[in-house]
Specification:
Length: 892
């Protein structure tokens, strides 16, 4: 890391550039790197889940149709529109001139199966009509996106008889086919390259069939990039997933200085077989796609093998001293190869090289060999797509591995792109450091385009001189920039190091990025202009650099568990929502972001009486706790506060399914279960991707991903491979916030859980405030049956467990857990094969939270290696005799 990062200077980006990449010699396909510079982002979660069919019904089924009332919205929203017998979806959309707007509003319509059937935009106050005819009856989703910077205000009018703003499914929408629209936002926001970390797709590529499926998933993203005119570069790891580890099983291992007993070692990095298995097997498929899609510019690789530890392997790290590497060096030098027999550890061989004064020569040899292997990979890909580029993370680290990749992957007129991590640890735009880095790349004889990454954790949007100015200078006065992580731009993560006691939200990062990209484009077209972003300032806290002398982090203005709004309206507005019979209370939260913003929020019961209110600046979430006096259609009014501007007020509701409409007659409600057995997944389908719910209407069906159908304890069952398999079940209101419940299932383990990777049976939500509901078999040596939940006190979960249990592999066990909470303490009882095996009491209240269900996985981790059958959920506590009866019912 350059010493200049330790000096808090004002960094001015007006000096001459010292390029490493030869921008003047770029071939036509890469000329955009000279005329536009690299303006890219990397995002990590491209997996797409099917859009679950909403379980809805009219809140007032017998009410006459009402005249449509428009609602004015800010930000992204999903509207559920119920198409009835006439087969028509009828709505209109208009942009409202109010505050700083991006200039357009975007929309898309999705069928009940999640397929996009229409899309478009509106750019002015004149309404854009959205009229679709001949549709099959059912719930359709109208997705509204206010565009990059999330600042456009949209007025929407729905003329269908029943519709609702859907806040409950916002998280589901972000993983649905709507996620592809993120590429459109990036294009409109001034980015010219999206690097998509396709490892998040969790698709095996080892078999030809698996590789075909992997390629289809990549094609979906790259085709959408072509459709919206954005360049796309899929990115892969070199050992970050179980499939990658599996791909290089059996290859000759490397030999490193460090050794770990009983830990398999990653392959030798100079073996062509390794690069064939890890890079070329997938890279060739991407290159084939690039022949038909000019928006695919190449593939990115991340040499860091983050997850190798988790999969039981010692990571490829440092320098390899195996017979292949050291033996080849000895032959080149004409040295006696007896040392290979005499010294058998990596450390001994390293010490011998040092003693012989050969370490530097050895590293140069390795760099040359790595360049040959990389050049072979490049030629293999160029034989398919001659203009195919490669991007490598952290080339600036500068060891033999990086040097070899940089030399081998690049050509005189086609640079290798660097995803530079050194800059994202608060270095940013540092002219002296960049010049030194360019010089190092040139000294290697490599053609490297320096992409300086900025990490939002270290470059907040609080002031223009932070994120926006560093991005601008890296782009306009150097070779380009990456925003990382791009996931922030479509999903608000909660906590940020906001600096200066100012909170930062997703839209703030968008605004900074849009501004920087616009300024880069203007400066490149008019080189003599002065930009307001010319000056980039070192941020007050330089992150986790020990040398910085900063003892602690900056003041965090946002709590990590702060939830985003579900609906954001522009006052004056009134929304109606249904409160079902079983509801006892709910909490409405209101927030007005930004300066000169506020409002008065009032909740009214079905009679129109005030049930609670809050008002003022609302610069943080303010709560209105409401006791339910009567079920029916309630309302929330958002009005300006006297003497205070009202721009937009965000709302979210805890304790209800937040479906809301602008008239009570149009309002939809979630169809909910009758009390008792509220979830029953027998898993008897035997084929397909559907796991039916047999507990009664409405059916909360699961979507099977990867798991295989096998003979079960009763009928069929699902087998989970312990790698990526899962069943996703959309939640129903009846499952949420339960203070009494019972769970049962049959489970057969093929392998016992490993340290740090428990065997999940049922999961309902991540580790988050009051959302953590996790039923699983725990780590060795106890292998306990565990029920873990979250609360305000235990944000990361508090566990009740059965105590130590032994499990025989390959045998079916019936497991059950009952839970109840009285508002002060909680009690759980654990059963196996009909017998009580443990009871626990927790001295605090819990409930089941409001997230969707997953079977067999905890959101991508803690994966079950075995089979599940007959999964059941009740909203009450079963007696011990009832549990025994459940065990006996399947022949136990």
């Amino acid at each position: 890391m350059a010493r200049s990062v330790l000096v808090a200077l004002m960094l001015v980006g007006t000096v001459a550039m010292a390029h490493a990449a030869d921008l003047a010699a770029l071939r036509p396909s890469a000329a955009w790197l000279r005329t536009e510079r690299l303006r890219g982002t990397l995002f990590h979660q491209p997996n797409i889940q099917p859009l679950s069919r909403p379980l809805i019904e009219p809140a007032l089924p017998g009410a006459p149709a009402a005249e449509p009332v428009p609602v004015v919205l800010w930000g992204r929203h999903g509207l559920v529109v119920l198409v009835e017998g006439n087969g028509r979806l009828d709505a209109s959309l208009a942009r409202v001139e109010r505050g700083p707007a991006f200039g357009r509003g975007l929309y898309a319509v999705f069928s009940p199966e999640g397929e996009q059937i229409a899309a478009g935009e509106t750019t002015g106050a004149r309404p854009t009509d959205i009229r679709l005819e001949g549709l099959r009856p059912g719930p359709y989703v109208l997705w509204l996106d206010s565009g990059p910077a999330s600042s456009t205000v949209l007025e929407v009018t729905v003329r269908n008889r029943h519709w609702a703003l859907d806040g409950a499914l916002k998280q589901e929408y972000e993983r649905s086919p709507m996620h592809y629209h993120f590429l459109r936002d990036l294009k409109l926001g001034g980015f010219n390259l999206a690097m998509v970390d396709v490892e998040g797709l969790s698709q095996s590529f080892i078999t030809d069939e698996g590789l075909g499926e992997w390629t289809k998933l990549v094609r979906r993203w790259t085709d959408y990039g072509r459709d919206v005119g954005l360049r796309v570069m899929p990115a892969i790891d070199l050992g970050g997933t179980s499939y990658e580890i599996e791909a290089w099983e059996g290859l000759p291992p490397g030999l490193y200085i460090e050794e770990f007993p009983n830990m398999p070692v990653a392959p030798c990095p100079l073996r062509k077989e390794y690069w064939e298995a890890i890079l070329l097997r997938r890279g060739r498929e991407v290159a084939k796609l690039a022949r038909d899609n000019p928006n695919i510019v190449g593939i990115g690789i991340d040499p860091e093998m983050y997850m190798a530890w988790s999969y039981g392997h010692y990571m490829l790290s440092g320098t390899c001293f195996c017979d292949h590497c050291l033996g080849g060096f000895l032959k080149q030098q004409g040295r006696d190869e007896a040392v290979l027999r005499e010294r058998t550890t990596g450390k001994d061989r390293h010490d011998w090289l040092v003693a012989e004064g050969l370490e530097d020569k050895y590293n140069r040899y390795l760099a040359d060999q790595m360049a040959e292997v990389a050049g072979w990979c490049r030629d293999e890909l160029h034989a398919i797509a001659p203009d195919f580029m490669l991007c490598v993370y952290v080339l600036e680290a500068g060891n033999w591995f990086c040097e070899g990749l940089a030399r081998g992957f690049s050509e005189p007129d086609l640079p290798v792109i660097n995803f530079c991590e050194s800059t994202y640890y608060s270095l940013g735009y540092d002219r002296a450091w960049l010049d030194a880095t360019h010089e190092r790349f040139r000294s290697w004889g490599a053609n490297v385009l320096q992409g300086s990454a900025l990490w939002d954790r270290h470059f907040p949007p609080t002031r223009p001189e932070f994120l926006a100015a560093h991005a601008y200078n890296c782009g306009a006065n150097d070779e380009g920039w990456w925003y990382w992580p791009g996931d922030r731009l479509y999903q608000d993560w909660g906590a940020t190091q906001a600096y200066l006691n100012r909170p930062a939200y997703a839209e703030d990062y968008w605004q900074a990025c849009v501004w920087a990209n616009r300024e880069i484009a203007e400066t490149l077209s008019t080189p003599d202009r002065t930009s307001p972003l010319d000056t980039a300032e070192v941020v007050p806290w330089r992150g986790m650099l020990k040398e910085s002398g900063i003892e602690g982090p900056p003041e965090i203005a946002r709590d990590q568990t702060e939830a985003p709004f579900e609906v954001c309206v522009v006052p004056p507005s009134r929304l109606y929502f249904a409160v079902p019979e079983r509801a006892k209370e709910f909490t409405l939260y209101a927030q007005a972001r930004g300066a000169e913003n506020g409002g008065q929020v009032t909740v009214r019961d079905p009679s129109g009486a005030t049930a609670g209110s809050v008002g003022g600046e609302l610069d943080s979430w303010e709560a209105v706790k409401v006791s339910v006096t009567q079920p029916g259609v309630w309302s929330v009014e958002v009005a300006p506060t006297d003497g205070m501007p009202a721009k937009a007020v965000g709302l979210r509701i805890e304790g209800l399914a937040p479906l809301s409409s602008s008239t009570p007659e149009a309002c939809l409600a979630e169809a909910t279960k009758k009390p008792g057995l509220i979830g029953y997944w027998p898993l008897d389908e035997g084929k397909g991707t559907r796991a039916a719910d047999r507990s009664g209407s409405p059916a909360c069906e699961g979507v099977v991903s990867g798991a295989e159908w096998v003979p079960g304890r009763a009928g069929d069952a699902l087998h989970f491979d312990g790698k990526t398999d899962e069943v996703a079940i959309a939640t129903n209101w009846a499952y949420n916030n339960l203070t009494a419940l019972s769970l049962s299932a049959w489970v057969k383990l093929d392998a016992l859980p490993q340290p740090g990777n428990g065997a999940t049976l049922v999961n309902k939500g991540p580790e988050a405030l009051v959302q953590h509901f996790w039923w699983w078999i725990g780590y060795p040596p106890d292998y306990a049956l565990i029920l873990e939940l979250g609360s305000e006190k235990h944000q990361w979960g508090s566990s009740a467990d059965s105590g130590a249990l032994q499990w025989e592999l390959g045998r079916w066990y019936h497991v059950a857990t009952t839970f109840t909470s009285d508002g002060a303490s909680s009690r759980a009882a654990f059963y196996r094969d009909g017998e009580l095996v443990g009871e626990r009491t927790l001295d605090e209240p819990f409930h089941s939270g409001s997230y969707d269900f997953k079977l067999g996985t905890y959101g991508g981790g803690h994966l079950l290696n075995g089979a599940l059958d007959e999964v059941k959920l009740w909203d009450r506590v079963l007696s011990a005799e009832e549990v025994r009866e459940e065990y006996r019912r399947a022949g136990g």
